[in-house]
Amino acid sequence: MELIAYLLAFQDHVLGFAGSKNGDLSSFLEWWKTEGIKKSVVLPENQKAIRVLTIHKSKGLEFRVVILPFLSWNLDHKSLYQPTLWVKPDSPPFNKLGMIPVKYKKDLSETIFADYYKEEKYSSYLDNLNLLYVSMTRAKDVIYGFAPSRSR
């Protein structure tokens, strides 16, 4: 029965596209890659279905059962996604540069940018702890969490 809702929603998207655009298959597939893929199916609340949400989108919501499939994340920034910090050095001769970009990494803790590094690290820890709090407080009845086992 649930499959029918998805097929009907897909049919609505196909008919909507065909009525407003060039109705050939290649145009539809191109539209689907860029726009159609973002479409979603709206189901009634009493429908027996699973809702997949990011932790951010679940903020303020409550669910009977929550499944957290990836309970393993760093509190600090991942090494592949280290942000650029815009800093204003106080020490000469660097203070003449104004605002400069520096890459967030542990080595900054041993430089004149140590305070900026510590502030960013604190913010990252706080953001990730808040994310953990939100993820752990969405369930009314049951929460299932899955984390990878540690390699020995």
Question: Can you give a write-up of this model?
Answer:
The chain has 152 residues and is of the alpha+beta class. The protein is 37% helix and 14% strand. It contains 4 helices and 4 strands; from the N terminus they run αααβββαβ. A two-stranded parallel ribbon has the order 1-4. The model has no long low-confidence stretch (mean pLDDT 85).
Give a concise summary.
Helices cover 37% and strands 14% of the residues. The chain is of the alpha+beta class and 152 residues long.
The whole-angstrom Rg is: 24 Å
Nearest-integer average pLDDT: 85
Q: So how many helices?
A: 4
Strand order of the largest sheet: 1-4
- Compute the number of strand runs: 4
| Structure classification | alpha+beta
Low-confidence stretches: none
Q: Tell me the major beta sheet.
A: 2 strands, parallel
The separation of the N and C termini measures 46 Å
Helix content: 25-40%
Name the features.
two-stranded parallel sheet, flat, 4 helices, 4 strands, two-stranded antiparallel ribbon, alpha+beta, 152 residues
Annotate the secondary structure layout.
Elements: H1 2-20, H2 25-34, H3 55-58, E1 63-68, E2 84-87, E3 100-103, H4 114-136, E4 139-145
Parallel strand pairs: 1-4
Antiparallel strand pairs: 2-3
